[in-house]
Design a protein that fits this description.
The complex is a heterodimer of chains A (296) and B (276).
Chain A (H helix, E strand, L loop, with lengths): L5 H30 L14 E3 L5 E3 L4 H8 L1 H34 L2 H16 L2 H12 L4 H9 L12 H26 L2 H9 L4 H12 L1 H16 L3 H6 L7 H11 L3 H31 L1
Antiparallel strand pairs in A: 1-2
Chain B lengths: L1 H30 L15 H6 L3 H34 L6 H13 L2 H19 L6 H26 L2 H9 L4 H30 L2 H6 L7 H10 L4 H40 L1
Classes of the chains: A mainly alpha (296), B mainly alpha (276).
């Protein structure tokens, strides 16, 4: 579109740029401002950081108390570490389950492949909330799993899974498995089969060839899939809220309670800013390069 | 060794697919249970589907969610396509890196963070310019924001792989850049636009966390109503509703996929014929 004048270009660039600035980036500026305020018993429930004095001067009433509170109050540190740990182990299990699945799909005949991909994709399109709810029907005390196990005589009492951390793990694995399989499939599918044939010709066992060739070449897919599971899992709210026990302190849930339960908006804003710096900043940079690599 | 490893792969694949599908199938099964008790099978019944039509709260929430989803995905498709065109076609412009960042960041931002910051924005805007009132408008604005990111990524990929020579040929033949884009490029990226509209529609229809933050009193979307009901325990009418939604969405996605595949095949055929 070279002949378009620079005015025409700006007609294309400006709408998305301005919209995202206003509704994605600037909100963080407001969150930062409010994180420096104090809680107050009016609507909205925080003090003004910028105030106009009667003699028309601006004055700043900022405090770092909320950030100090985050550092001194144990709940946030514990919740943050707990969320990282939960997300980490869920990602590992997703990887252990998703890798063989992606590998099997990549080796399937073309026609079967597209059907299998559709089968993996379909749950990704259907409601997340409803799928988490559906899982409850399987794992609750009188759900399908316990009914089957009791019937088979494998257990004498129903297993207590609902409202435990195990339920949260199951929920994350169940919900995010497609996100792991799809990028893994994308890299495994591109793998050149002649490399494996060459390895076999040179006397390599299939297992050895897998370790030496397939695994290293699929690292980009492993990283992309792990990121797609890990990042949303750290901030997950629905799964710990619906499946986890009352003492499951994932950071998303703590934040939700701070906001809707305690109405402490300044502390919630401070958590949002801290979260942004701790997790999202480095990963956004990484993701930026990753997306460019996937596009290439 | 070869046979054993194939067997292993196949069983993990089956296990994975079973994990993905069994809960949904069981849910659909429960929705036909005549008994309101979850652990008792009271015979086959469609009664719970009937009760849905008399639940005003659910119907109103469903209507609001549909309105939000249609508005948000339509807005996002326009903004996201513009952003994709800007990023693919204009190699250099001030703010390019900023736009790239803002397009990718919502994809990795935890919903709860986006929700809180956007609520704080809307509350501050209300104080400053008395707009927007929290409810339909704010939910749509918030959904457009994260949906735009998905549209841009999808359309960007399609646009980058599109053949530019057709567009250039059209311009050599005297078409203006706008006309060349509308008549040549737009049909090529149309499948990406359609599929990203569908993706946005389902994402918007499903969103609980962001809607809960930015919504105001009296505006409850369907996921918000479902969540509050589910929090109180299993309810059989939610089973029926969930089955309806899952089946409807699944059917639409399958049909859309099939139609787009057919259109794509026809387009390829026409291209081949034109080349001969």
């Amino acid at each position: 579109m070279k002949p378009t004048g620079s005015q025409g270009r700006w007609l294309i660039i400006l709408p998305p740029l301005v919209f995202l600035l206003l509704f994605f980036l600037i909100p963080f500026a407001f969150a930062f401002k409010i994180s420096l305020a104090q809680t107050a018993a009016h609507v909205p429930p925080y003090t003004d950081v910028l105030q106009v004095t009667p003699d028309h001067h601006w004055r700043v009433f900022a405090t770092l108390a909320n950030y100090r509170y985050l550092l001194t109050d144990e709940v946030y540190g514990v919740a943050y570490l707990f969320s990282l740990r939960t997300a980490f182990f869920s990602t590992l299990i997703c990887l252990a389950l998703g890798y063989p699945m992606a590998y099997a799909i990549a080796r399937a005949p073309r026609a079967t492949q597209s059907v299998l991909l559709l089968v993996i994709m379909l749950p990704f399109w259907t409601s997340f909330l409803l799928r988490v709810y559906a899982l409850e029907g399987i794992i609750r005390d009188n759900g399908l799993l316990n009914t089957v196990l009791l019937h088979l005589g494998l257990i004498e009492h129903p297993l207590r899974i609902m409202r435990t951390n195990l339920a949260v793990y199951l929920g994350i694995i169940y919900s995010y498995l497609p996100f792991m399989v799809l990028p893994l499939f994308a890299t495994l599918e591109k793998l050149d089969p002649t490399l494996l044939e060459a390895a076999a010709d040179l006397g390599s066992t299939p297992w050895r060839a897998f370790l030496d060739i397939t695994l290293p070449l699929s690292v980009p897919g492993v990283i992309a899939g792990s990121m797609l599971v890990f990042i949303p899992a750290v901030g997950e709210f629905v799964i710990p809220s619906l499946l986890g026990g009352p003492n499951n302190l994932m950071i998303g849930r703590v934040l939700w309670d701070e906001f809707f339960g305690n109405h402490d908006w300044p502390v919630a804003a401070a958590v949002a800013i801290a979260f942004l710096l701790l997790l999202v900043g480095p990963i956004a940079i990484y993701q930026y390069y990753n997306v460019r690599q996937l596009e290439a | 060794m070869e046979r054993r490893s194939s067997l292993f792969l196949l069983s993990v694949l089956c296990l994975g697919i079973a994990i993905l599908y069994i809960p949904i199938l069981v849910l659909i099964g429960y929705s036909f249970n005549a008994s309101p008790l979850v652990n008792v099978w009271g015979g086959f019944s469609t009664a719970w589907y009937g009760t849905l039509w008399h639940n005003r709260q659910l119907l109103e929430a469903a209507l609001l969610s549909l309105e939000v989803a249609v508005s948000a995905s339509s807005g996002a498709v326009v903004l996201g396509t513009l952003a994709a065109v800007a990023l693919v076609r204009f190699a250099r412009f001030p703010g390019r890196l900023l736009l790239t960042g803002m397009v990718n960041a919502p994809l990795v931002m935890p919903e709860i963070i986006t929700g809180i910051t956007q609520l704080l924005l809307f509350v501050s805007m209300m104080q400053l310019i008395s707009w927007p009132h929290r409810g339909f408008t704010t939910i749509v604005l918030a959904h457009v924001t994260f949906c735009t990111a998905y549209v841009t990524i999808t359309v960007q990929a399609r646009l980058a792989s599109a053949d530019r020579s057709l567009e250039e040929a059209a311009m050599d033949l005297g078409a203006g850049p706008a006309r060349a884009f509308l008549e040549i490029t737009l049909p090529i990226i149309a499948p990406a636009i359609v599929s990203s509209w569908l993706l946005c529609f389902t994402l918007s229809l499903d969103d609980l966390v962001i809607s809960s933050f930015v919504s105001g009193p009296g505006a409850s979307t369907l996921p918000m109503v479902i969540y509050s009901k589910v929090k109180l325990g299993v309810s059989p009418d939610i089973n029926a509703l969930a089955s309806l939604i899952v089946c409807a969405v699944g059917a639409v996605i399958l049909a859309a996929g099939w139609l787009m595949k057919r259109a794509e095949r026809r387009r390829r055929l026409e291209m081949q014929l034109a080349e001969q």
